[in-house]
Design brief:
single chain, Rossmann fold, 2 domains, two-stranded antiparallel sheet, binds thiamine diphosphate, binds magnesium ion
Length: 371
């Protein structure tokens, strides 16, 4: 079994390289737009949180190639077990901005009526399983879903997304072990962004890479330049082909960098050497792809300006629409769990209504997240 210790790169740091077969100019443009969209969505998300308009935000700045390259290789029928940092995939798969923001506001348009933490999306229509906060749990769930797909004969791949920190979880072992044993169609996407909040990757493992861990589970491991959208696309495409051909799972490690805080509750300046950040800033995945596109005569400043104006307009419109959507009715705290509400909950609901009649409405905390 081929084990890649070499780093798979297509676009070199100077922006030169041959595009993977099967992609044309429309694809290149769509990939670039999705990466830029993600960056602008992140900037706006952080600003909205700082303005106190949403409670919490998890940016993915620096990881756009690592996510969009893979998302571009996914099939519409594939099942996703994402991480809290992979909203770019939902945007690429056509989830509207309004739905993304409805979740962040936890308003009446939100599928789960504000019951999940902001940024923990669930989108049944694109087979996007609800994001779990506990690190790694999605890995074993994905292995189970891939086994189910295998038994049913479904022609699809199941993707589990997690970080370098996620590889230290029990679920990483359980998930990869059984996917290897069953040879199920599972793709394990490890985004090695070098940090698990303040824990650097050297403190996470003594292995020479995260991809090397695939050897122990009897599956191919690929080490990919995660700031190179074509390299990520190519590795993901190959992994998906293997999955659909019945050749089993793959572990992909995308080497990338979190060019920002872990979340809106974090300040990396307290633990990250500034020189490290600056060295990765020079490897910005959007700039790398932009250079390639410019050399092909596809990227121009005028196109960039047009794209930015378009995207910022779409974001502004969706923010306004989500912010003016009402909060869910108070009754929804008690619904959607039982088909028939048990007496205990009915009593609690009546008690709550009585309290509101007596003391007035529940105090609005402004959506502040308690961390
Ligand atoms: C089981 C568990 N332990 C600790 C945490 C707190 N926590 C949230 S995110 C995180 C870091 C995860 O890092 P990584 O897997 O590298 O993903 P990244 O955030 O870098 O994308 C930790 C420790 C948690 N959510 N769940
Ligand atoms: Mg990480």
């Amino acid at each position: 079994m081929a084990q890649a210790t070499e780093l798979l790169t297509v676009i070199d740091p100077k922006g030169k390289g041959k595009a993977p077969a099967g992609l044309d100019t429309d694809d290149f443009k769509a990939m670039y737009r999705a990466m830029l969209f993600t960056r602008l969505f992140d900037q706006r998300g952080m600003n909205l949180q700082r303005q106190g308009r949403i409670g919490f935000f998890v940016p993915s700045t620096g990881q756009e190639a690592s996510q969009i390259g893979a998302a571009y290789a996914m099939g519409q029928e594939d099942v996703l077990f994402p991480s809290y940092r992979t909203h770019s995939i939902a945007l690429l798969k056509g989830i509207s901005l309004k739905r993304m923001y409805d979740q962040m506001w936890g308003n009446d348009g939100d599928a789960v009526k504000g019951r999940q933490m902001p940024n923990h999306f669930t989108f049944k229509d694109i087979n996007w399983v609800s994001i779990s906060s506990p690190i790694g749990t999605q890995i074993s769930q994905a292995a189970g879903a891939a086994r189910a797909a295998q038994i049913k004969g479904d022609k699809l791949a199941v993707w589990a997304w997690f970080g370098d920190g996620g590889t230290s979880s029990n679920d990483f072992h359980a998930g990869l072990n059984f996917a290897g044993v069953w040879k199920s169609p599972c793709i394990f996407m490890c985004e090695n962004n070098h940090w698990a909040i303040s824990v650097p990757q050297e403190m996470q493992t003594a292995s020479h890479s995260f991809a090397a861990k695939a050897v122990a589970y009897g599956m191919p491991g690929m080490r990919v330049d995660g700031n190179d959208v074509f390299a990520v696309y190519e590795a993901s495409r190959q992994a998906r082909e293997r999955a659909l051909n019945g050749d089993g799972p793959t572990l992909i490690e995308n080497l990338t960098f979190r060019m920002g805080p872990h979340s809106s509750s974090d300040d990396p300046k307290r633990y990250q050497p500034p020189e490290l950040f600056e060295s990765w800033q020079k490897k910005d995945p959007i700039e790398r792809f932009q250079q390639w596109l410019a050399a092909e005569g596809i990227w121009t400043e005028a196109w960039e300006d047009k794209l930015r104006t378009e995207i910022m307009g779409e974001i502004a419109e969706a923010v306004e629409a989500a912010e003016s959507t009402p909060q869910p009715e108070i009754e929804t705290i008690f619904t959607d769990v039982y088909a028939e509400m048990p007496t205990l909950l009915k009593d609690q609901l009546e008690g709550l209504k009585e309290q509101i009649r007596r003391d007035g409405d529940i105090e609005d905390t402004g959506g502040a997240f308690p961390l």
